[in-house]
Each structure stands twice: as structure tokens, then as C-alpha cells.
Amino acid sequence: MNILVIGAGPAGLLFASQMKQAQPAWNISITEKNTPEEVLGWGVVLPGRPPRHPANPLSYLDQPERLNPQFLEEFKLVHHDQPNLMSTGVTLCGVGRQALVQALRAKCVAAGIAIRYETPPADTAQLEAEYDLVVVSNGVNYKSLELTPALAPHIDFGRNKYIWYGTTQLFDQMNLVFRSNAHGIFIGHAYKYSDTMSTFIVECSEETYAKAGLEALSERDAAAYVAKTFKAELGEHELLSQPGQGWRNFMTLSHDRACDGKFVLLGDALQSGHFSIGHGTTMAVVAALLLVKILDTEADTAAALDSFNARAVPLMQLFKDHANSSRLWFESVGERIGLSNAELTASFDARRKDLPSLQEALMASLGYALGR
Ligand SMILES: Cc1cc2nc3c(=O)[nH]c(=O)nc-3n(C[C@H](O)[C@H](O)[C@H](O)COP(=O)(O)OP(=O)(O)OC[C@H]3O[C@@H](n4cnc5c(N)ncnc54)[C@H](O)[C@@H]3O)c2cc1C
Questions:
Q1: Is the CB of 57 under 6 A from ligand 1?
Q2: Which has the least CB within 10 A, 44, 56, 65, 122?
Q3: Does 340 fall in a domain?
């Protein structure tokens, strides 16, 4: 079997390394649009402590401690300048995207999987002729590849503006900070992901963004404005942005089908979901493990892809529902900003309660994928 993986992010890399482990004779290669050094984003949270949690990609690395993961067991909601500290009820694992992606790439290369960087967009007809299977794991960059109409995405942009910063201030808990000023409400999501760095995501409504004049500011001045807004949390620590990764509206990419012909979608390329539920990488891992299991057990590739479609699409739709409910809660937070800290916390906790459990669906898929 000759497989091409498009995109060297967590989805494509985990699929490639686990598939190669299951079928060492298969030829698997990866193309990546960026240079080896370019990895977008700062830190992410993942479930559990590796190697115990199978949806945590660190569980598939030989020495996960080398990535300097940080374990987070408390959640702090700050509203009206008062902190409300609680247990998260689970262990979360903060880790740098750069460290995670580089470690997964090294694992692939060690297994004999070639990664070709700075590869120009491929012609799909040529790919179809050359490969038995093409795994499309190019994140939300759907424009970078022309796929068949069956794989055309539904695209939905969130109403809030957000930006993903890094900072040297260390946040020992999962922090959710609501801060109002003359321009409107700003929300900070912050946690440490190494012993020197934290992620700091900020979102606000488009009206607040306009009133604060953020569009007209340079990246540096905008970061200084936000740092001043969250001075109580950041102290003198700066907010660091990546070049070209400015303020944007969150893009949710969804599909009715996960595969068509020889092409199969994986990770964000199949379904992206708002950062406020922190599950995108987890979903990418679970979908990659499902695809490996199905290809490993089903001799006919077309039948395997149909089977993957039947399992992955409902799971991704549930992920989308959870992520959208969470996103909408943040987009309408102005309606609740007068609540007390305890009331706002309760409302935040309840924002996805009417939906079927995503956790149970994930565990069921993992159980199938890992034969447990
Ligand atoms: C602000 C923010 C915070 C987040 N926080 C969390 C979190 O806490 N926890 C969590 O689990 N998830 C989080 N996520 C989501 C998470 O980052 C994604 O779900 C995850 O990276 C998906 O992995 P992927 O491999 O599918 O895509 P990506 O990580 O986007 O990787 C795709 C790769 O494909 C490459 N590529 C693109 N086009 C092409 C092409 N044509 N040819 C070749 N290569 C191409 C890209 O350069 C990239 O390397 C967050 C996302 C955002 C935006």
C-alpha cells in the first residue's frame, strides 16, 4: 500500500507513525507546506497523563517528559476581579505545539517515513494516479488543495475576534478571566504549557475590537493594549505573537463525508472546533487511531474508508455541536456579565449540558480503535 499524508500536524503524524507500526511494509510519506521550523500556535491542553491516556499524543512518544508537559488540575475563573478556584475533576496536560509536532515528526522519521517540507500544493489527479490512499490532514487550510465536491467543506466563522499569544508569565491553573473596560469585555484563556511559557488566548466581540481601535494598531501595540487590560494577571510579562498570526474570527470547518475515492480527511481538515473546549488535537488523535484500526483490519480500502466514514462523521458532528455551544456562550457573554462570579461559573459549566456526552463518545471510539 502506497500512502501519502498531506500535512505534518498532529493528525497526519500520529496516523503515519501508528499506521507504519501496524503495517511496517506499507510505504508512507508526508508532505508539509511549511519549513521544519514553522509550527503555528503556542501551547495546547491534552487529556490525562501520558502514557496512561490513549487520546493524549504524548502517550505514543518514548520519552514524553522531554516535552516538559505541565499537569493542570485546577480551574480558576476570574470575574469582577475575584478568583473562583475549583478542581477541574480531571488531569489536563499542557504542552507546546512546537515541541509536540517536532517530537511526532522525529518519531515518523525514525520509523522510515519521509517528510518533504516546503512542498507546493499538489495536483489531485496526479495524486490519485500515484497513490493508493491520500490522507488529507492539512488543518483548516482547505484552499490549499482542490478536492472533489463531495469533500467540499461547510465553513462557519465565529462572531468574536481572537488572538493566540504566548507569555513567560506562568499560570498554574486553567484560567478564564473576564475583564471589562471602556471598550467592552475581553476574555483571557491562559495556562502554562512548559516550565517557562504559558498560552494566553484573548477574545472579544467585533464591536469591542472596533471600539478599542485594535485593527489600526501594530501587532506590538495591540499586544501592549491587551497586556494592560490583563495587567492583574500578567504583571510586567509581555504578550508574544507569531508573525502573521494576528486577530481573526474562528473558522469552523465541517464535512458531510470524511472520504471520497482515494482521499480521506483527518483532524481539523475533517472537523475543526472552537478552542474554548480544547479538544481539537484530541479529536485528531482519536480519528487517526480509528483510521489506523480500520485500514489494518479491512483488506479492501474502499470498504475501509466507508467504515471510517460511518464511525468518524457522527463523532465529529458531536464535537462540532459541543464546540459551537461553547463558542456561542462566549459570543453572548455580554448578556451574563452582570452575574456574580458563582452564577457565571455555573452558567459556564452548564453551557454544553444538554448535549450527549462527548467524553463517552470519545471513549467508545478509542475502545474500538485500541481493541479494548
Ligand atoms: C487558539 C487555538 C487554541 C487551541 N487550543 C487547543 C487545545 O488547548 N487543545 C487541543 O486539543 N486543541 C487545541 N486547538 C486545536 C488544535 O490546534 C488543532 O485541532 C490541531 O492542531 C489539529 O491538528 P491537525 O494535524 O489536524 O492540523 P494542524 O495542526 O493545523 O496541522 C496541519 C498541517 O498541515 C500543513 N499544511 C497545510 N496545507 C498544506 C498543504 N497543502 N500541503 C502540505 N501541508 C499543508 C500545515 O502547515 C500544518 O503543519 C487550538 C486551536 C486554536 C486555533
A1: no
A2: 65
A3: yes
Cell of 75: 480551574
* Predicted local confidence at residue 372, as pLDDT: 77
What is residue 257's three-state secondary structure?
A: coil
Q: Using the atom order of ligand 1, give the atom closest to the CA of residue 138.
A: 34
Q: Is the C-beta atom of 121 inside 6 A of ligand 1?
A: yes
Residues of the chain with pLDDT under 70: none
Asked if the structure places residue 167 within a domain, the reply is no
pLDDT at 121: 75
CB-based burial label for 341 (10 Å; 0-12, 13-18, 19+): middle
Residue 275 beta carbon below 6 angstroms from any ligand 1 atom: yes
CATH number of domain containing 134? 3.50.50.60
pLDDT of residue 200: 98
Burial class from Cβ neighbours inside 10 Å (0-12, 13-18, 19+) for residue 299 reads exposed
To the question of pTM greater than 0.90 for the whole model, the response is yes
Sheet holding 114-116, edge to edge: 114-116, 27-31, 2-6, 133-136, 263-265, 259-260
Q: What is the pLDDT of residue 106?
A: 98
Domain with 280 in it: 2-54+95-157+251-370
| Within a domain: 28 | yes
Q: Is 82 domain-assigned?
A: no
Angstrom distance (rounded) from CA 327 to CA 153:
19
Tell me, using a 6 A CB cutoff, whether residue 144 lines ligand 1. Answer: yes
Say how many domains are in the chain. 1
